[in-house]
Protein backbone atom coordinates (compact mmCIF):
# COMPACT_ATOMS: atom_id res chain seq x y z
CA UNK A 1 0.00 0.00 0.00
CA UNK A 2 2.82 2.37 0.86
CA UNK A 3 4.48 1.64 -2.49
CA UNK A 4 1.17 2.12 -4.28
CA UNK A 5 0.55 5.49 -2.56
CA UNK A 6 4.06 6.65 -3.34
CA UNK A 7 3.56 5.72 -7.00
CA UNK A 8 0.35 7.72 -7.17
CA UNK A 9 2.05 10.77 -5.68
CA UNK A 10 4.97 10.48 -8.13
CA UNK A 11 2.60 10.09 -11.05
CA UNK A 12 0.59 13.13 -9.98
CA UNK A 13 3.81 15.17 -9.63
CA UNK A 14 4.99 14.18 -13.08
CA UNK A 15 1.62 15.12 -14.56
CA UNK A 16 1.76 18.53 -12.86
CA UNK A 17 5.27 19.18 -14.16
CA UNK A 18 4.23 18.18 -17.67
CA UNK A 19 1.19 20.46 -17.57
CA UNK A 20 3.31 23.34 -16.25
CA UNK A 21 5.83 22.88 -19.03
CA UNK A 22 3.03 22.91 -21.62
CA UNK A 23 1.57 26.12 -20.17
CA UNK A 24 5.01 27.72 -20.13
CA UNK A 25 5.53 26.67 -23.73
CA UNK A 26 2.17 28.17 -24.70
CA UNK A 27 3.01 31.43 -22.94
CA UNK A 28 6.38 31.69 -24.69
CA UNK A 29 4.98 31.02 -28.15
CA UNK A 30 4.27 34.34 -29.98
CA UNK A 31 0.68 34.87 -31.07
CA UNK A 32 0.39 35.51 -34.84
CA UNK A 33 -1.64 38.54 -35.85
CA UNK A 34 -2.65 39.29 -39.42
CA UNK A 35 -1.08 42.51 -40.76
CA UNK A 36 -3.33 45.56 -40.93
CA UNK A 37 -4.17 46.30 -44.56
CA UNK A 38 -4.35 50.06 -45.13
CA UNK A 39 -7.25 51.12 -47.32
CA UNK A 40 -6.06 52.54 -50.62
CA UNK A 41 -6.89 56.22 -51.14
CA UNK A 42 -8.87 57.44 -54.09
CA UNK A 43 -6.77 59.15 -56.79
CA UNK A 44 -9.24 62.07 -56.83
CA UNK A 45 -8.91 65.23 -54.75
CA UNK A 46 -10.62 68.62 -54.79
CA UNK A 47 -9.84 71.97 -53.21
CA UNK A 48 -11.94 75.08 -52.67
CA UNK A 49 -9.75 78.15 -52.35
CA UNK A 50 -9.90 81.92 -52.15
CA UNK A 51 -7.48 83.48 -54.63
CA UNK A 52 -5.74 86.84 -54.64
CA UNK A 53 -4.88 87.57 -58.28
CA UNK A 54 -2.19 90.21 -58.71
CA UNK A 55 -1.21 91.07 -62.30
CA UNK A 56 2.12 92.73 -62.91
CA UNK A 57 1.69 96.25 -64.28
CA UNK A 58 3.10 96.58 -67.75
CA UNK A 59 2.35 96.74 -71.45
CA UNK A 60 2.31 99.25 -74.24
CA UNK A 61 0.24 100.79 -77.01
CA UNK A 62 1.90 100.38 -80.39
CA UNK A 63 3.26 103.62 -81.84
CA UNK A 64 3.00 105.61 -78.59
CA UNK A 65 6.40 106.11 -76.98
CA UNK A 66 6.50 105.66 -73.22
CA UNK A 67 3.02 104.15 -73.04
CA UNK A 68 2.30 101.75 -70.19
CA UNK A 69 -0.63 99.94 -68.59
CA UNK A 70 -1.73 99.01 -65.07
CA UNK A 71 -4.34 96.52 -63.90
CA UNK A 72 -6.50 96.05 -60.84
CA UNK A 73 -6.08 93.11 -58.47
CA UNK A 74 -8.92 90.73 -57.64
CA UNK A 75 -10.08 88.36 -54.89
CA UNK A 76 -12.17 85.43 -56.20
CA UNK A 77 -13.27 81.89 -55.27
CA UNK A 78 -11.73 78.96 -57.12
CA UNK A 79 -12.20 75.20 -57.50
CA UNK A 80 -9.42 72.82 -58.43
CA UNK A 81 -9.51 69.13 -59.26
CA UNK A 82 -6.46 66.90 -58.78
CA UNK A 83 -5.84 63.36 -60.01
CA UNK A 84 -2.98 61.26 -58.57
CA UNK A 85 -1.31 58.92 -61.05
CA UNK A 86 0.97 57.70 -58.23
CA UNK A 87 1.44 58.84 -54.63
CA UNK A 88 3.95 61.42 -55.91
CA UNK A 89 2.78 62.41 -59.41
CA UNK A 90 -0.50 64.27 -59.94
CA UNK A 91 -2.22 66.62 -62.37
CA UNK A 92 -4.23 69.64 -61.22
CA UNK A 93 -6.81 71.71 -63.09
CA UNK A 94 -7.95 75.04 -61.63
CA UNK A 95 -11.24 76.69 -62.52
CA UNK A 96 -12.37 80.23 -61.76
CA UNK A 97 -13.00 83.68 -63.22
CA UNK A 98 -11.47 87.06 -62.32
CA UNK A 99 -12.45 90.66 -63.15
CA UNK A 100 -9.82 93.33 -63.89
CA UNK A 101 -9.68 97.01 -64.84
CA UNK A 102 -7.22 98.21 -67.50
CA UNK A 103 -5.73 101.66 -66.91
CA UNK A 104 -3.45 103.88 -68.97
CA UNK A 105 -0.04 104.70 -67.47
CA UNK A 106 3.20 106.33 -68.50
CA UNK A 107 2.71 108.67 -71.44
CA UNK A 108 -0.99 107.68 -71.67
CA UNK A 109 -1.77 108.04 -67.96
CA UNK A 110 -4.17 110.87 -68.85
CA UNK A 111 -6.55 108.32 -70.35
CA UNK A 112 -7.36 106.96 -66.90
CA UNK A 113 -9.36 103.75 -67.02
CA UNK A 114 -9.44 102.27 -70.51
CA UNK A 115 -11.72 99.29 -69.97
CA UNK A 116 -12.90 96.34 -67.89
CA UNK A 117 -12.55 92.63 -68.68
CA UNK A 118 -13.29 89.26 -67.12
CA UNK A 119 -10.81 86.40 -67.38
CA UNK A 120 -11.44 82.65 -67.48
CA UNK A 121 -7.94 81.22 -66.93
CA UNK A 122 -8.09 77.38 -66.69
CA UNK A 123 -4.61 76.16 -65.76
CA UNK A 124 -3.36 72.56 -65.95
CA UNK A 125 -0.20 71.65 -64.05
CA UNK A 126 1.76 68.43 -63.56
CA UNK A 127 2.86 68.18 -59.93
CA UNK A 128 5.39 66.31 -57.81
CA UNK A 129 4.18 65.69 -54.24
CA UNK A 130 6.68 65.02 -51.46
CA UNK A 131 5.39 62.35 -49.05
CA UNK A 132 8.03 61.98 -46.31
CA UNK A 133 6.97 64.78 -43.97
CA UNK A 134 3.96 63.36 -42.16
CA UNK A 135 0.87 65.59 -42.42
CA UNK A 136 2.92 68.25 -44.25
CA UNK A 137 2.56 67.55 -47.99
CA UNK A 138 4.54 70.06 -50.12
CA UNK A 139 4.46 69.99 -53.91
CA UNK A 140 5.88 71.69 -57.00
CA UNK A 141 4.20 72.00 -60.38
CA UNK A 142 4.55 73.32 -63.91
CA UNK A 143 2.10 73.46 -66.77
CA UNK A 144 0.10 75.48 -69.22
CA UNK A 145 -2.57 78.18 -68.98
CA UNK A 146 -5.19 79.25 -71.49
CA UNK A 147 -6.92 82.54 -70.67
CA UNK A 148 -10.17 83.52 -72.33
CA UNK A 149 -11.33 87.15 -72.02
CA UNK A 150 -15.06 87.96 -71.94
CA UNK A 151 -17.51 90.69 -70.85
CA UNK A 152 -15.06 93.24 -72.25
CA UNK A 153 -16.17 96.84 -71.91
CA UNK A 154 -14.58 100.13 -72.97
CA UNK A 155 -15.04 102.57 -70.08
CA UNK A 156 -13.22 105.57 -71.57
CA UNK A 157 -15.34 107.89 -73.78
CA UNK A 158 -12.50 108.02 -76.31
CA UNK A 159 -13.01 104.33 -77.18
CA UNK A 160 -15.96 102.45 -78.57
CA UNK A 161 -14.60 98.96 -77.96
CA UNK A 162 -11.79 97.10 -76.19
CA UNK A 163 -10.85 93.60 -77.27
CA UNK A 164 -8.21 91.50 -75.48
CA UNK A 165 -7.32 88.35 -77.39
CA UNK A 166 -7.40 84.92 -75.78
CA UNK A 167 -3.88 83.73 -75.03
CA UNK A 168 -1.73 80.77 -73.93
CA UNK A 169 0.87 81.02 -71.19
CA UNK A 170 3.21 78.94 -69.03
CA UNK A 171 2.48 78.34 -65.34
CA UNK A 172 4.73 77.54 -62.36
CA UNK A 173 3.41 76.44 -58.98
CA UNK A 174 4.45 75.69 -55.39
CA UNK A 175 2.33 74.88 -52.39
CA UNK A 176 1.50 72.47 -49.60
CA UNK A 177 -1.36 70.63 -47.94
CA UNK A 178 -1.47 70.18 -44.17
CA UNK A 179 -3.62 67.09 -43.72
CA UNK A 180 -5.78 66.89 -40.59
CA UNK A 181 -6.77 63.30 -41.38
CA UNK A 182 -6.74 61.05 -44.45
CA UNK A 183 -9.47 63.11 -46.13
CA UNK A 184 -9.39 66.73 -44.92
CA UNK A 185 -6.59 69.26 -45.07
CA UNK A 186 -5.61 72.91 -45.31
CA UNK A 187 -3.95 74.23 -48.49
CA UNK A 188 -1.64 77.13 -49.38
CA UNK A 189 -0.69 77.62 -53.04
CA UNK A 190 1.24 80.13 -55.19
CA UNK A 191 1.23 80.26 -58.98
CA UNK A 192 3.03 82.44 -61.50
CA UNK A 193 1.46 82.65 -64.95
CA UNK A 194 3.36 84.15 -67.87
CA UNK A 195 0.60 85.83 -69.87
CA UNK A 196 1.02 88.65 -72.41
CA UNK A 197 -2.10 88.93 -74.59
CA UNK A 198 -2.49 91.37 -77.48
CA UNK A 199 -5.37 93.82 -77.46
CA UNK A 200 -7.20 96.16 -79.84
CA UNK A 201 -8.88 99.46 -79.01
CA UNK A 202 -11.41 100.98 -81.39
CA UNK A 203 -11.79 104.73 -81.12
CA UNK A 204 -15.16 106.45 -81.44
CA UNK A 205 -13.95 107.66 -84.84
CA UNK A 206 -13.50 104.09 -86.06
CA UNK A 207 -9.69 103.93 -85.91
CA UNK A 208 -7.95 100.93 -84.35
CA UNK A 209 -5.11 100.99 -81.84
CA UNK A 210 -3.20 97.82 -80.94
CA UNK A 211 -0.86 96.88 -78.14
CA UNK A 212 0.25 94.22 -75.66
CA UNK A 213 -0.84 93.76 -72.04
CA UNK A 214 1.90 92.28 -69.86
CA UNK A 215 -0.36 90.70 -67.24
CA UNK A 216 1.97 87.93 -65.92
CA UNK A 217 -0.13 87.50 -62.76
CA UNK A 218 0.83 86.08 -59.38
CA UNK A 219 -1.97 83.97 -57.92
CA UNK A 220 -1.98 83.40 -54.16
CA UNK A 221 -4.47 80.87 -52.84
CA UNK A 222 -5.56 79.35 -49.56
CA UNK A 223 -8.40 76.98 -48.80
CA UNK A 224 -9.64 73.50 -47.91
CA UNK A 225 -8.49 70.17 -49.36
CA UNK A 226 -10.61 67.02 -49.57
CA UNK A 227 -9.11 63.69 -50.69
CA UNK A 228 -11.73 61.11 -51.62
Topology:
Blueprint: H1 2-28, E1 44-54, E2 59-61, E3 67-71, E4 74-84, E5 89-95, E6 98-106, E7 113-120, E8 123-129, E9 136-154, E10 159-164, E11 167-179, E12 184-194, E13 198-203, E14 208-213, E15 218-227
Antiparallel strand pairs: 1-4, 1-15, 2-14, 3-6, 4-5, 5-8, 6-7, 7-9, 8-9, 9-11, 10-13, 11-12, 12-15, 13-14
What can you tell me about this protein's structure?
- This protein has 1 helix and 15 strands; from the N terminus they run αβββββββββββββββ.
- The model has no long low-confidence stretch (mean pLDDT 89).
- By secondary structure, it is mainly beta.
- 12% of the residues lie in helices and 58% in strands.
- Strand 8 and strand 9 form a beta hairpin.
- The chain folds into 2 domains: 1-33; 44-227, Porin.
- Strands 1-4-5-8-9-11-12-15 form an 8-stranded antiparallel beta barrel. Strands 2-14-13-10 form a 4-stranded antiparallel sheet, with no helix packed on it.
- It has one helix spanning 2-28, and strands spanning 44-54, 59-61, 67-71, 74-84, 89-95, 98-106, 113-120, 123-129, 136-154, 159-164, 167-179, 184-194, 198-203, 208-213, 218-227.
- 25% of the residues are buried.
Amino acid sequence: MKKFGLGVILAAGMAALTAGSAVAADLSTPVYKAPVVEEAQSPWQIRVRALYVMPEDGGSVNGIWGSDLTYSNAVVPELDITYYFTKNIAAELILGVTPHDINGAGSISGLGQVGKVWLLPPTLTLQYHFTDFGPFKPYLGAGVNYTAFFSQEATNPAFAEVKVKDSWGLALQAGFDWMIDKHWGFNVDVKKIFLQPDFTLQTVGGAYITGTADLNPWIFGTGVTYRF
